[in-house]
Amino acid sequence: MTDKTYSSRPVIKDDYTPDPRRNVEFSHAPRSYGRWVAWVIVLLIAADVIWNVARNPNFEWHVVAQWFTEATVIKGLGVTLGLTLVSMLLGVFLGLMLAIARLSQSMLLRRLSGMFIWFFRGTPLLVQLLFWYNMSTLFPRVVIGIPFGPEYMSWNTNDLITPLTAAIAGLALNEAAYMAEIIRAGLLSVDNGQAETAQAFGMSRGRALRRIIIPQAMRAIIPPTGNQLISMIKATSLVSVIAMGDLLYSVQTIYNRTFEVVPMLMVAVIWYLLITSVLNVGQSAIERYYSRGTRRSGSATKRRQVSGEEKTIPLVSQPGVAQKEDL
């Protein structure tokens, strides 16, 4: 028998032809044809809907264009924006106070805050607006004085509770109940060690909230607050039931005269969509501002991981080229 010598070293052939499918230089993500098909179907459906709506004569787009910038509509739009701004500011301020009370060590403050949130979140906003508007039926006079004692000042309720004050009170108090839970969740998202460190440096609780806790909690508070602001824009349409001249009430006044119901409602819809679109852009900018530290730290961590991988990963053998271990 002939002796054969076997070698564990690979044999390098000069005529080796690499397979492009196994070369990482030509690697790419797998093509997802299903996604392209889904995109085409969705775009076709959207184009069909837009075409049918645009060509439908029942929408009366010429009437929409005629009344879109009419003085009455613009005045109602200003009332809607003003109600939203004032009610949202009051709601955020009261919500902050309620959230701090809910996290207080005083049982009395916790109970009072919890009852306020329970009541205003548990009743419909429309009912609250109607109660505020008809407050004079329940309490003809508003009195300031000592309980079961002398009265110092009093006013006629009808002089105080106008449609404007009823709308602001109803919207602001209802919003405060929701903002209290949003802010409380944001404050709880901050690690307790932050408050303990602030107290160790001699900071008071109020200063620690202003300088340390609240700025860190804003990253968790901003997104739901933006949603609440958009909801507030749409909730102002409910004040039309108490004869408040907002955007919806203005278009209702017009179509009650002209009987052009659908085009006037489209005027209100387009204005609401424009406002919410602008608010979405502003919300995104604020979110990027408060999350800039997180993005920066995430990018730095990724760079450190990549640099570490570059140090530990060996060079990939190229087909047809002998490596040092094979020589």
How is the topology of this model organized?
Elements: H1 33-55, H2 61-67, H3 71-102, H4 107-122, H5 125-133, H6 135-138, E1 141-145, E2 151-156, H7 157-160, H8 163-188, H9 192-200, H10 205-235, H11 247-258, H12 261-290, H13 292-312
Antiparallel strand pairs: 1-2
Summarize the structure.
With 327 residues, this protein is mainly alpha-helical. The protein has 13 helices and 2 strands; from the N terminus they run H-H-H-H-H-H-E-E-H-H-H-H-H-H-H.
Plain-language structure description:
The protein is mainly alpha-helical. It has a domain at 81-144 and 154-244: MetI-like (MetI-like fold). Helices cover 69% and strands 3% of the residues. It contains 13 helices and 2 strands, in the order ααααααββααααααα. Strands 1-2 form a two-stranded antiparallel ribbon. α2 crosses α12 and α10 (205-235) runs antiparallel to α12 (261-290). The longest helix has 32 residues, at 71-102. The protein starts with 32 loop residues before the first helix and ends in a 15-residue tail after the last helix. The model is unreliable at 309-327 (pLDDT under 50).
Mean pLDDT metric: 82
Question: Hey, roughly how much beta strand do the residues contain?
Answer: under 5%
For the biggest sheet, the summary is:
2 strands, antiparallel
Subunit arrangement of the protein? single chain
Class by SSE composition? mainly alpha
CATH architecture name of the domain at 81-144 and 154-244: Orthogonal Bundle
Label the overall shape: flat
The count of helical stretches stands at 13
Task: Quickly name the level 1 CATH class of the domain at 81-144 and 154-244.
Answer: Mainly Alpha
Rg calculated over all Cα atoms:
33 Å
User: Could you tell me the number of beta strands?
Assistant: 2
Sequence of secondary-structure elements: HHHHHHEEHHHHHHH
The N- and C-terminal alpha carbons lie at a distance of 31 Å
Examine the coordinates and then state which fold CATH places here, giving the name of the CATH topology of the domain at 81-144 and 154-244.
Answer: MetI-like fold
Lateral arrangement of strands in the main beta sheet: 1-2
Q: Low-confidence parts, pLDDT < 50 over ≥5 residues? A: 309-327
Helix share, percent: 55-70%
The CATH homology group name of the domain at 81-144 and 154-244:
MetI-like
